[in-house]
Design brief:
260 residues; four-stranded parallel beta sheet; 11 helices; elongated
């Protein structure tokens, strides 16, 4: 029996298809890279866990329950790797929950979220340039990425990512947030200044769940798609979460590698 485990911690999603295409893809890549560990799934959202249990019969632990279960199973080494994008409220909660188990395992380590260091920002920009090469090569197109946003000071990561995009010489990629700055109104100004004639919309979130399908690509008048179309831009939506892209998954793996 393996006594070393990797706990992959995600906020979670109630959409089964994007769950397997994103979070599942990250977990499978970790399993392939580290066969000597067993990989355990963990969601921090109580609402998501409740819906999945009631609708699908899926029982997914939160962080404390997952760590308690690993203790009961005799695991001695645990690496906790989040799939969070930023050091926001969810990561703060994860740090606190993991700290409560300090000393109960011979070894317990916690990895970093996607955007943590200057190198992370630079690697994410290069990943986006690779994954969205076609729209970024079109001088008539603007690529707009919708992040979640937060009241936490970590929301500054979106402005920082925009700065790194410009520093890399990319002029037609714009990052915003549905619940923070930059808002869609801010991006409309920048898109107009760029001279773009059409917009490609995609989520800057690990999964393409409710926010991507409704706030970004929904038919309602307040969705980003509707707002951009009202401003005169033809809009194409890409409903793929960041976890779908291997270049992004490799950044998470590099963060895991740091703590193993």
């Amino acid at each position: 029996m393996k006594n070393r485990a990797i706990l992959v911690v995600s906020f979670g999603t109630t959409y089964p298809q994007t769950l397997e295409e994103t979070i599942g893809a990250i977990e499978r890549e970790i399993e392939k890279a580290y066969p000597e560990y067993f990989v355990r799934r963990c969601f921090t959202s109580g609402i998501v866990r409740k819906v999945l249990y009631q609708r699908e019969g899926l029982q997914i632990d939160d962080v404390p329950d997952a760590l308690e279960r690993l203790l009961e199973e005799g695991v001695t080494e645990v690496a906790v790797q989040p799939t969070h994008v930023m050091h926001g409220f969810e990561y703060d909660k994860l740090q606190s929950q993991a700290a409560a188990f300090t000393g109960r395992f011979p070894r317990l380590s916690l990895g970093r979220p996607l955007l943590s260091s200057t190198a992370d920002y630079q690697e994410v920009v290069q990943a986006l340039r690779s994954e969205f090469a076609d729209p970024l090569a079109d001088p008539q197109a603007a690529l707009v990425l919708m992040g979640h946003g937060t009241e936490h000071f970590a929301n500054a990561c979106y402005a920082a990512l925009n700065d790194h995009v410009r520093a890399a010489g990319v002029r037609n990629l714009f990052v915003g947030a549905v619940e923070g700055y930059p808002e869609v109104d801010d991006l409309l100004i920048r898109i107009k200044e760029s001279g773009a004639k059409r917009v490609v919309l995609a989520p800057l979130m690990v999964v393409a769940g409710d926010h991507a399908r409704n706030d970004m690509a929904g038919a309602g008048p307040d969705s980003w798609k509707s707002r951009l179309e009202s401003a005169g831009y033809p809009v194409t939506c890409i409903l793929k979460g960041l976890g779908s892209y291997r270049t992004i998954r490799q950044i998470y793996l590099s963060h895991l590698r740091e703590i193993l």
